[in-house]
Amino acid sequence: VQLQASGGGLVQAGGSLRLSCAASGGTFGSLSMGWFRQPSGKEREFVAAIRGYGGSTEYADSVKARFTISRDNAKNTVYLQILSLKPEDTAVYYCAARYYSGGLRYPGGYPYWGQGTLVTVSS
């Protein structure tokens, strides 16, 4: 499975972004997809995840009021809509994929990763 993340950029606080992650080489509908982020100098942290087919979602408590994960199985793409961006959202955002639908909050459980897309939020 190959993943290509895109959509990052420089945004003012209060703005919004939609990140995309296009997948290829696997059975996308059965993949659970996750978004993680890594601020500079910090560890990678879970943001959101969506399961295959049924599409149930999970969110980190710190973002669930502002972030929405979704998927388009026809386009083999998962999205992360981010509203009301804050400077503390500044990070490299990574998408990841796995075929197992449990333990989606743990980065170590994902064998497939995209290259990351940088989100910078200015105050």
Main attributes of the structure:
123 residues, mainly beta, seven-stranded mixed sheet, four-stranded antiparallel sheet, 50% strand
Summarize the SSE layout with pairings.
Elements: E1 2-6, E2 9-12, E3 17-24, E4 32-38, E5 45-50, E6 57-59, E7 67-72, E8 77-82, E9 91-98, E10 112-113, E11 117-122
Parallel strand pairs: 2-11
Antiparallel strand pairs: 1-3, 3-8, 4-5, 4-9, 5-6, 7-8, 9-10, 9-11
The total of helices stands at: 0
Outline the low-pLDDT stretches.
Answer: none
Q: What is the overall pLDDT average? A: 96
What's the main sheet like? 7 strands, mixed
- The rounded distance between the terminal residues' Cα atoms is 37 Å
The shape, in one word, is globular
Relative strand content: over 45%
Rg measurement, Å: 13 Å
Secondary-structure element order, as H and E? EEEEEEEEEEE
Q: Helicity, in percent?
A: under 10%
